[in-house]
Predict the structure.
Amino acid sequence: MTQERLSVRTIREILRLKYESKLSNRAIARACRVSNSTVGEYLARVERAGVTWPLDENWSETELYEKLFPGEEKTAVVSERPVPNWEEVHRELSRQGVTLMLLWQEYRVQHPDGYGRTQFFEHYHTWNQTHTASMRLPHKGGEEMEVDYAGMTLPITHPESGEVTQAQIFVSVLPASNYTYVEVQPSQELQYWLMGHVHAFQFYGVPKILRPDNLKSGVKKPNYYEPDLNPSYQELAEHYHVAVLPARVKRPKDKSHVENGVQNVERWILAVLRNQTFFSVAEANRAIAPLRDELNQKEMQHLGKSRKQLFEEVDRDALLPLPERAYEFARWKNARVSIDYHVAFEGHYYSVPHTLVGQEVRLRATEHLLQVFHREKQIAIHSLSDAQGRFSTNPDHMPSHHKFVLNTDSDWLLREAAKVGPHTAAYMTAVLRSRPFPQQSFRTCLGILNLARKFLPSHMEVACQRLLNPKLLTYQDLKSELEHLPIDPSLPVLPAHDHVRGDQYYQ
């Protein structure tokens, strides 16, 4: 039994990096933020189980675990364990008498669910190798692409209003040749960050490894040891079959080539354009293109060759070709299924199977579609809508006793309420008119009818009449009022005076 149970998503990523990107186990371990031994153990389990890549998309999480862990007790995917402060561990080891065993024992006292001794030792040694060595190794051609934004910006003047905004400068560099790509972008928002990568791939070809900074657009949760990638960035990596190894926080040597590339872009491109006025991002990019080519063709004195020449010699043949299908930008979001088996995305509500009420799902929104995933399996798909406060409901997602709601309109609800009495009908009408869209009040109205089956009509009439004028128009208001009425079957309905509004008033 493995000591570290991984999520299906992490297992898929290990297999993708192994069989598509051809990375070593050590590189995979760092990209997936697990230990080397865990990578080796999972690859061995995959081989013993006869599982091949790519995985069958129809496999559920349970089916995959049954193949990798035959005969073992099924357990839920465990959350990530508390990560020790390895830098503090490293400092403590320099003190006389302190051993790694002692530090592990102290760690387990604070975190009983933390790493076992073997994992604690392995994680520390992995950290020690990657964080204390300063020797720079030569880069292989086509293996890596470093990306970052320049510190300088480029003013863009609106042609009509004259308003000036500061455009961002996206820079990427292939470390083996220092071949540089640069483009102007409206901002550092996610869609521009990702499209900068797409354009760089079109300019170079596709490397095996991406080395970004811990930029918010690319790394959702910066962390010294285990940065959490933005889901859209992870999807781009999977589409192009590359591994993402973010630079460590406050470790500029991890992406030293793009740091130098940014300096070159600022000196040889942005400084040259400092006195020009641009009225659009597209115009600025047209001006940058020839300066970028000039920079790449400029001879580097310490090598006696240009970036372009080195690219042709060491990078071009080693880079991977572009995939046949174009990358489509998508936004990802986690959501919890509401009691009405809908999830919210940008103010609109989309249905999912009613059996998932209360569970967490992942939403993927493209330009036209919204996909809903549960445990890595798609369970719903809808056309994306910008109608605020409205619902997109698939009848197949509804429980059988709710399906009649689709054939329910305001008239039917009012007729059912009128069977109880005029004050109940008036209250129902007020509830329907209290929402921007009547459909939003249907669940409240159904709740009112359900209360009418539990309480006497006379009680319903009194409660509804009492709540109309103060406009207490929720299910909970009515339920509370009914529960506090005296239990008396002979309780009379309040007389209908001329000053009491009837149901016609709310039509």
Q: What stands out?
A: The first helix runs from residue 8 to 19. The radius of gyration is 31 Å. The first strand starts at residue 144 and ends at 149.
